[in-house]
Design goal:
The protein is an alpha/beta fold. It is built from nine helices and seven strands, in the order E-H-E-H-E-H-E-H-E-H-E-H-E-H-H-H. The radius of gyration is 16 Å and the shape is globular. The protein binds adenosine-5'-triphosphate (ATP) and magnesium ion.
Length: 231
């Protein structure tokens, strides 16, 4: 049997878009995996195709899922102590597991990376973020060393301007120069991504024809491809 893919979103820096990405990806993946349209969660565990583990003590992701009750998505809270059993239980239930972490290098990050099929490191286009992405990448390398396996990690540029600007291209080259592989897609700066926290709805539910929704669709294609999941 094919094992359940596990995606970890990690950054040693806070506020780079981990939770925003996890929330959007979870909802769009659930929609695709269960073929459901804009329904709410019925609370039936049999329908949970996407499990989100919120390992950030601020519980932003957990609260957003609780508010929006997206169909097919289940969220739970974990600490460094409970993360490994939570991941084991989640992988047994769901078709994909997403782990959202606190914006700091900690034990939970090491555990999550150690279990991950893929680690996504969100970073904004700035030199400061290149340095932070390298720190995060070093944690992934430690987890790979501990577990004795290769762990794929990719940086995603976040909050990039809608109109491609020189800074994004320049920033891409800086990440590449440091040997940090980049995702093709970026998470574009859009008001719809900020709105989400208030509505509890992802742009793919809130405004399916909008620019933010198409950004999420392209991102989901790329992430599911990297996880070896049929798109
Ligand atoms: N693409 C975007 N467009 C507009 N606003 C965004 C975007 N991505 C994130 N934000 C906003 O930036 C803030 C930080 O985003 P988010 O909470 O996703 O980051 P985080 O990495 O999870 O932070 P933390 O490390 O504190 O958990 C939030 O207010 C969010 O609404
Ligand atoms: Mg967060």
């Amino acid at each position: 049997m094919k094992s359940t893919p596990i995606l970890a979103l990690a950054s040693t820096k806070g506020g780079v878009g981990k939770t925003t990405l996890t929330f959007c990806l979870a909802i769009e993946m659930a929609r695709r995996l269960s073929g459901n349209q804009d329904n709410r969660d019925s609370g039936n565990p049999d329908e949970w195709v996407v499990e989100c583990i919120d390992a950030d003590p601020n519980r932003t992701l957990y609260e957003a899922v609780r508010k929006g009750r997206p169909k097919g998505v289940h969220a739970e809270i974990a600490t460094a102590e409970t993360l490994l059993p939570a991941v084991a239980a989640a992988t047994a239930r769901a078709k994909v597991v997403l782990i959202d972490l606190e914006g700091t290098a900690n034990q939970a990050m090491l555990y999550a990376c150690g279990k991950a099929s893929l680690v996504i490191i969100p970073a904004q286009p700035s030199l400061f973020d290149v340095v932070e992405a390298m720190k995060t990448s070093a944690v992934v390398a430690q987890a790979a060393d501990l577990t004795g396996r290769d762990i794929e990690a990719k940086v995603i540029l976040t909050r990039t301007p809608v109109l491609r600007q020189r800074v994004a291209e320049h920033s891409r080259r800086q990440f590449e120069a440091k040997g940090l592989p980049l995702m093709r897609c970026e998470l574009v700066e859009r008001a719809a991504f900020k709105m989400m926290t208030y509505t509890g709805q992802s742009p793919s539910e809130d405004d399916p024809e909008g620019g933010a929704a198409s950004n999420v669709a392209a991102l989901t294609d790329e992430v599911m491809g990297l996880l070896g999941m049929p798109i």
